[in-house]
Structures are given as structure tokens and as C-alpha cells.
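#lab-general

N.A. 3:47 PM
ok so I finally got the sequence cleaned up, no stray characters, all 126 residues accounted for. can someone with queue access submit it? mine expired

B.Y. 3:52 PM
send it over

N.A. 3:53 PM
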Amino acid sequence: QVQLVESGGGLVQAGGSLRLSCAVSGRTFSSYHMGWFRQAPGKEREFVAAIRWSGGSTYYADSVKGRFTISRDVAKNTAYLQMNSLKPEDTAVYSCAAGRVYGSAYLRAASLYDYWGQGTQVTVSS
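B.Y. 4:20 PM
back already:
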């Protein structure tokens, strides 16, 4: 059974940092992309960042480029999202996902991801 488990969320002041982790179990994802999405109350889920498990190519939403860094540790089967210079508008539930997404243009499409974690709350106070 495939499981993605996020951790690392919490409450932080604006300008602070958090690192989210997504631990994967049940299979390997060598041909997959790992993505981070977020959903704020009353808003649609939005793409944050993605990384190709094999090779490590990374992709970011414009709103987080330069502040967030996605990475993965193949040996630990874990993906990470380092979030710096956090803003109140970054407040959301952050979820990791895994999927065989062919073509970087489609990485923003949540429907193309097969496996999802339960999400972790990130709250940034002003």
C-alpha cells in the first residue's frame, strides 16, 4: 500500500522558515514526479513545486520562486519543501503528491497525480 506522509507544518511569523517533509512508503517512484500543492480556505488547490524523482529537475510556481526549494533524498524515499521568507498569503494546507506526469507543462495539474498525502497545516502570522 502506497503512503505519503507529510510533516513539518506549523505556525511561523512572517519572514520565517519551515521545512516540510513527505515520507513515501510502499513503492519506489523512480519514474514519477513529486509535487507539493497547497489549498487555503475558500480557495482552489494550487501548484507550489515539483521535482522529478530521477534526475532531480525542479519546477516552481511563480509565487514561490526564489523563496521555496524542493528537494528529495532518494535513499530516504523522502521529498522536502524548504520554505523561506514566508508570507501570510502562504498560509494553507500543504499536500505532497506523486504521479507519472509527462511534460513539465502538466505538472500544475493536480488531477494527473496518483498518490496524495493527508496534508499539513502551515500558518504564517503577520
